[in-house]
Amino acid sequence: MAESEDRQRLLGDVDDVSPAGRQAAGGPGKTLPAICDPNHLLHRVVVLVFMCFLGFGSYFCYDNPASLQTQVIQDLNLNTAKFMQLYAWYSWPNVVLCFLGGFMIDRVFGIRLGTIIFSLFVCFGQVIFASGALVNRFWLMEVGRFVFGIGGESLAVAQNTYAVNWFKGKELNLVFGLQLSMARLGSTVNMNIMGWVYSKFAVVVGSAGHTTLGASLMIASVTCLFSLICALVLAFLDKRAERILDKEQGKTGEVIKLTDVKDFPFTLWLIFIICVGYYVAIFPFIGLGQVFFIEKFGFSPAEARAVNSIVYIISAPASPILGFMVDRTGKNVVWVLIAVVATLAAHMMLAFTFWNPWIAMSLLGVSYSLLACALWPMVAFVVPEHQLGTAYGFMQSIQNLGLALIAMAAGALLDTRGYLVLEVFFCTCICIALIAVVMLYFVDYLRGGDLNRSAAARAKLQKEASSEAE
User: Fold this and answer.
1) Largest Cα–Cα distance in the chain?
2) Of 71, 97, 162, 351, which one has the fewest beta carbons inside 10 Å?
3) pLDDT tens across 150-170, in order?
4) What angle do CA 261, 266, 268 make, to 5 degrees?
5) Which three-class secondary structure state does DSSP give residue 463?
6) How buried is residue 35: exposed, middle or buried, by Cβ count under 10 Å (0-12/13-18/19+)?
7) How many angstroms separate the CA atoms of 72 and 66, rounded?
8) Helix H or strand E encompassing 28
């Protein structure tokens, strides 16, 4: 009974920990300080800090080409099509690698070793990428982006799996919000600082060029090294918690098979459809948004960049706040429905009106943050724990496939039909997501409304189930 309670506390199912429990964790006659006690909320907060910074480096460096687009094209004498290959080499492998990454977390490496390996891929990939710029070899930069991509999305899967392992009972929506906030903080910092770093190196070197570009990208790799350190610390803390709480006994003992994908519940497939339908109307639009705001609204390039980046800027502070709100209220499916409807309204404003685009983009930023906080945790509510890595990996994989395909389709539409038809296309994608959300709501309602329970109600049910099992 005591071991079961310890495991539930680690997952966040119990707020208060008795002195006897802490004494048992520290050994006979020993009481662990709160910050060192895996049972205690303060220790989980420490774990959460490292968990959030785990993905900071990969998100910071992912958008290095975008933040230095002019410099990359000029210093390496590229055209735009060749420049975009830096993103293609990242995205296409992840259609497969995300799924395999989740599978390897569940079955081969485990969460701790898997996270370290993926962090190493990210770190080495960025170093190879920067080295290619230093020696003016674009093919080497492509190799670096490929290696970086192998680790990038799989690291996000590992980060999600860590979050569920530590916070499944409570605060999970808040945790996902904080992780999204830190990720977007990395993207925002990259967009605003890499140009400054490049200019400083240009002064030191004496001129712009591939050497300056490579040195700037090598400085960016420091953020990946920092994330690798976070992976090592997380592995130590997770292993320590497993030893103290005898957490191994809480595992299911089941072995996942790749064929288990066909057994994923219908609700999970609806979540996948929502994920793809929604995000393909966000990221490709932001990628093409700067010229849109210049052409339709007459903005200057600086104003267009500002309004185009507001989605990420809003998501940084809004995500944890909205995650906390979703935790308190529950109603995950309802919040996803609100986010999808708000996003559809934002795209329709941009497509069919000349209202100030700050209104629509601000609404887009809030709804984007809300959807991430409410949608991604629902995976943990519909699949067994031993399939979480595979489920999140598959979700990332089809998201990458959708983004790659829709990005190409969006570019073709923009070249042949213009921005109005492109916006109608994005609205259509959002409508597909909306249909899937409505179906998810009714399916969940018929099955008892589990997805709309609050974190507190979910924790109470888990505690009661654990007591009955004893």
Assistant:
1) 75
2) 351
3) 888 788 878 878 887 777 656
4) 65
5) helix
6) exposed
7) 9
8) none
